[in-house]
Amino acid sequence: MAALPSPLRVCRGILKELRLLHGPGYNQSLAYTYVMDQFRKNKVTGERYCRAQQEAHHASHSYLCLLESTRSHLVLHNLYHSKGERNPEQVANLVGLRLPTQPGGKGWDK
Q: How far apart are the C-alpha atoms of 27 and 24, rounded to whole Å?
């Protein structure tokens, strides 16, 4: 299993995703206050090794992965599925191909 990034990096990543989702007023949302409260409540202290803190860190990293994946999925969905029915030439261009042409019934286009 790969090492988890630092809690500060995860917190910044979650806040970045919230900013992309809610716009400039993201710090007034309930999600922002909840995330910040949870990170403040579970920060590392030098007194003891806390298993709950490790679980919270793993959960926050999983949540960050969910937010990033959801945003990426929506971008891909809008790119490939939002245009309805397409003609064969548009479909070929979408995957990087070009349809052959046969001008006047003689040979292929150069």
A: 8
Q: Is residue 108 part of a domain?
A: no
**How many domains, the chain?**
1
Would 74 be classed as within a structural domain? yes
Query: Which distant-in-sequence residues (6+ apart) come within 8 Å of 5 by Cβ?
Result: 13, 61
Q: Is 102 within the bounds of a domain? A: no
pLDDT in tens, 26-79: 889 898 999 898 888 877 655 556 666 678 888 888 999 999 999 999 998 888
Burial of 36 (0-12, 13-18, 19+ CB in 10 A): middle
The two three-digit tokens of residue 19, written as one number: 């900013």
Element (H, E) at 81: helix 51-81
Range of the domain at 38: 7-95
Single pTM value for the model = 0.61
- Per the listing, tokens 């926050």 go with 60
